[in-house]
Amino acid sequence: MKTAKEYLRGSVRDYRVFDTASQNEALINEFKGNLFEYLVGAELSRSISKEAEFLRTMSSDLAVRLRGYEDWLWQNDSQLAEQLPRLAQSTSEYILKNLDQKFSKVLVIGKLAGGSHDESFGEADLLLVTKDDQPIPLSLKLCKKGAYVNTKSAGIRSFLSKYFSEVPNIDLAQEQVNVVLDQSFSELAQTLHERHGLDSSSNFATAWKDAGLPLLPGELNQDDQALLQQHYSKIVTLLSHSLGQAFELARPEFNRSLAAILGLKVKGMIQVTCSHKEIKSKRYELDHISMVKEGERLEQLEQAVFHPVTDGLASFNVEFPWGILQIRVKPMNKFTQAALKVNCSVREADL
Q1: Residue 302 pLDDT > 80, yes or no?
Q2: Cα angle for residues 305, 308, 313 (degrees, 5° grid)
Q3: Residue 119 — very low, low, confident or very high, per pLDDT cuts 50/70/90?
Q4: What is the model's pLDDT at position 311?
Q5: What is the number of other CB atoms lying within 10 angstroms of the CB of residue 211?
Q6: Which stretches within the chain are classed as H helix?
Q7: Which of 349, 345, 291 is nearest to 91 (CA)?
Q8: Is 32 exposed, middle or buried (0-12, 13-18, 19+ CB in 10 A)?
Q9: CB-based contact 258:325 (threshold 8 Å)
Q10: CA angle, corner 330, sides to 20 and 277, nearest 5?
Q11: Any idea of the CA torsion for 304, 314, 161, 260, to the nearest 10 degrees?
Q12: What is the DSSP string of 256-312?
C-alpha cells in the first residue's frame, strides 16, 4: 500500500520562477495551500486507517501536480517544503482533539480537486463523512501569524452585485461605482499623458507602453504613484460609502452577504487556521492552531463595527470580536487598464 509521501512520487511538471518576488510569493502561497490541504487530509485519513481509500479517491493527474508543487518548493523555499508535513500533522492532531463528531471517510473537495468540487459545500477544502453519511465541511488556512488571508475577490465592476446581491438597490450602487471608475480613470490617463508628453489622442495603455514607461504600480515614480493612489482612494471611498449605507440601513442582508464572504455560507462549516511564525532564522515554525464553527461566527456578526475608508488608503475594514475583514481595491495587474480588483481578506485577532 502506498503512503501519502510515496503517492507524490512520479512524473514532475515544471513550474517557472518569476522575475519579481511578489509573483514568486503568490506562487508559493498557491502551492503551499494545495499541499497543506492534501497533507492534512492524508493525516486525518491515516488516523482512521483509511489512507489507501483517501488516495484512491484522487486523480492520477493530481499526483503529478502535487509532486511538481513539492519539487518547486524544495528548490525555491526549502524551509517551507520541510515544515509543511509537520504543520499538517500538528493541524490534524488538533482537529482530532477538538472535533466533536467521529468520521469514517476523508475527501478532498477544495480547489485542489478541480472540477470535482461540489459547490454545495462552499469554501470547504476537505469533507469528513460520518458513519451515517453526514458531511462535515472543513475549511483550512495556513498563514503567517498576524497576516491577512484572502477569502474572496472579484472585478470591481461586479463586486457589489455579486457579493451583496441581497442588499436593496445594490445594482444602482454598482452602476454608480462603474461610472465613477471610468471618469476617474479617464482623468488619470489624461494627466499622465500630459505629464509625460504623450500624444493625448492616442490610446493611453498603448502610448504608455510604447514610451517604455513602467506598467506595474510599484515601479512608478513617486509623483505618478501619488496620482494613482488618489484614483484608488476615490473609488474605494465610493465603495465604502455604498457598503456603509447597507450596514446601517439593511443590516440583515448585509450580514448574510458577509457570511458568504467569510466562508460561512454552508451550514456546519468548520474553519481551521494554522498560524506559523519566524524564530530567529527559522521560518514556518508553528505558532498556534484555531478552530471555529459556522454558528459561533454567525452569532458575532451582530457585533461588527464598520470602519469607513481613511483618506489616502485603498481599503476599509469591518471589525469583529475575533478579527478584521479588510476590503481593498487593487489593480488587476498593469495599472494602464481601468479594470480594478476588489480583494477581501481576514486577519485573526492576536491570541
Answers
A1: yes
A2: 130
A3: low
A4: 75
A5: 11
A6: 4-7, 21-47, 51-56, 60-76, 78-98, 159-163, 170-195, 204-210, 222-249, 251-261, 294-299
A7: 291
A8: buried
A9: yes
A10: 60
A11: -40
A12: HHHHHHTT--STT-EEEEEEEEEETTEEEEEEEEEEEEHHHHHHGGGG-EEEPPPTT
Residue among 136, 126, 144 nearest 38 (CA)? 126
Write down how long the chain is. 351
Whether this model's pTM surpasses 0.70: yes
Query: How far apart are the C-alpha atoms of 116 and 276, rounded to whole Å?
Result: 30
Cα-based distances in Å from 199 to 223, 334, 335: 20, 20, 18
| Grid coordinates belonging to 222 | 513617486
What grid cell was written down for 303? 457585533
Around Cβ 45, how many Cβ atoms within 10 Å? 25
Cα separation of 210 and 312, whole Å? Answer: 30
Residue 213 DSSP code: -
The Cα–Cα gap between 126 and 117 comes to: 10
Grid cell 512524473 is found at 11
The grid cell for 329 is 481595491
CA dist., res. 319 & res. 303, Å (int): 8
Q: How many CB atoms neighbour CB 260 within 10 A?
A: 19
Tell me: the pLDDT tens digits for 170-227? 999 999 999 999 999 999 999 998 999 988 777 888 999 999 999 988 899 999 999 9
CA-based nearest residue to 189, from 178, 179, 200:
200
pLDDT in the model for residue 351: 58
